[in-house]
Amino acid sequence: MTTETLTGRQRLIMCLLLGAQFMFALDFSIVTVALPVIGDDLDMTPAELSWIVTLFALSAAGLMLLMGRIGDYYGRKRMFLIGMALLTIGSAIGGFANEPTLVYVARILQGVATAVTAPAALALLTTSFPEGPLRNKALGLNGALLSLGFAVGAVLGGVLTDLLGWRFTFFLNVPVGLLVLVLAPALIKESTEPIRQKLDVPGAVTISLALLSLVLGFSRAEAKGWSSPQVWILLAAAAVLFSFFWLIESRSPHPLAAVTVLKRPSVALGNLGGLLTFSMESGKVFLLTIYLQRVLDSSAFLTGIAFAVLGAGAFTGGMVAAKIINKIGARNTLVFGLLLQGATAATFVLLGHSFAAGYVHILVATALGGFGHVLAIVSYTVAVTSGLPDSEQGLAGGLSAMTQQVAFTLGTPILAAIAITAGATAGATKDGILDGVHTGLLVDALALAVVAGLIAVLYKVPRATAAPAESVQTVETAEAEVAG
C-alpha cells in the first residue's frame, strides 16, 4: 500500500466509523426539530421540552473527556461497541416512549452513547491511518459528515415528523446501530494504550462536574435569561471546578489529561478554533432561522431547504479539505476557514425585508460559510491529533469531541442574548428582530476574526512525542505538511 492509497479494508473501516459519526451529528439536531410535535403528543410544557435538548448535551459533554481516556486504557473498539449499543437501546426507548420520563431516559442514553463513541471513533480513525495525506483525507470526510449530519438532521427531522411521526426521529438509529454492531467486531482492530495506567478519579470527577455546570449554566441562560442568579452560580462553579481540574492534573502521577498535552499550542489553539467554529455556526443557524420565519415569514420547509444548501457547501469543504491541508498546512487552513466563515456571517448585516433578496443571500452565503466551517473543523482536528503518540489519541479525540458538544451548547444562548438585547429598543417588531439578528451575526463574524488572528500568530507546529520508531518518518512528513 502506498501512502496515498486506501486498502479495501481501510475503506470499509472508514465507512463504518464515519457512518457512526454522521449518526451522532444527526442525533443532535433531528429530535430538536420534532420538539413541538413531541410536546403536543405527550402534553409537555415548553420548559419540559427544553430538557430534551439539555439532558442530551449534559450527558454528552460532561462525560466526553473521561470516556475518551477510558478508551485509551481499556480499548477503543470496546468503547465504540458499547456506545453503539447504548445508542440503539436509547433510540428504541425514545421511539416507544409514551410519557416524558421515557423520552428523558432515551436522550440521556443517547448523550452517554455520544460521549462513549465519539472519542473512540475519532481515535480509531486516527490510529487506523498514519499521519499525513491518508489521515487528513479521513478527517476531511469526518468533518464533512459532522456538519452535513447536523444540517441533514434539521431537514430530515421535519420530513420524518410530517410523514411518519416524531417517533421515527428516534427509530431511525435502530437499524443503523444494529448494522454497525454486526459489522464492527470483524472489521475494526482493538486499539489501546500498551501500558494501562491508573484512572485519575479526582480529575475525572472534577472535569465532569465542571462541564456539567458549564453546559447547564448556558442551557439555563437560554431558558431563564442572563439575569437569572442560577445561571451565574452555575457558570462561577464551572470556572472554579476547571481551576481545580488544572491543579489536579498538574500534580497527578497519572493525569486524565496531561497538562503538557493541554498546553501544546496545537492542542490549545486548535480546540479554541474548534470551539469558535462550532459555536458561531450553531448560533448563526439559530439567528437565521429566526430571521427567515419571523422577519420573512418563511415556512419551516423553505427554512430547512436553506440549511440543506449549507450542508452541501459543508460536504464540498470536507471533500477538498485534505488537499488544502496537505498543500498549505493545518494552521493556514484553520485560519482561512475561520475567516471565510466569519466573512460570510458579516455579509448578513445587509439582510432586509425582501424575501427574494434575503433568501438568495442566505443560500449563497451559508453555502460559502459552510465550506469554510468544515475547513476549520478538519484542520482543527488535524491540529489537535498531530504529533501525539497513539496512546494519547483517545485524549485528543475526547478533547475534540468535547469541544464540539460544548460549542453547540454555547453558541445559541450567547448570540441569542446579544440579539435580544440589541433588538429590545424596537420591541418585538420585525425591525427589532432584524436589528438583533444583524448585531448577533456581526459579533459572530468579529469573534471568528479575532480567534483566526490569534491562531495565525501563536500556533506552532506540533512535535511528535514518544512516537513508535517505525512511525517517525510519517510524523516528520506530517509536521512538514502542517507547518504551512
From TrEMBL:
The record's section on PROSITE patterns has:
MFS
Q: Which domain of life is it from?
A: Bacteria
Output this protein's name: MFS transporter
Q: Where is the Major facilitator superfamily (MFS) profile domain?
A: 13-465
Please give, as recorded in its UniProt entry, the membrane topology of this protein: Multi-pass membrane protein
Q: Which Pfam families does the entry link to? A: MFS_1
Spans through the membrane: 12-37, 49-67, 79-98, 104-126, 138-160, 166-187, 199-219, 231-248, 269-292, 298-322, 334-356, 362-385, 406-428, 440-459
Q: Does the keyword Transport apply?
A: yes
- Which subcellular locations apply to this protein? Cell membrane
Question: Which UniProt keywords are given for this protein, alphabetically ordered?
Answer: Cell membrane, Membrane, Transmembrane, Transmembrane helix, Transport
From which source organism is this entry?
A: Kribbella koreensis
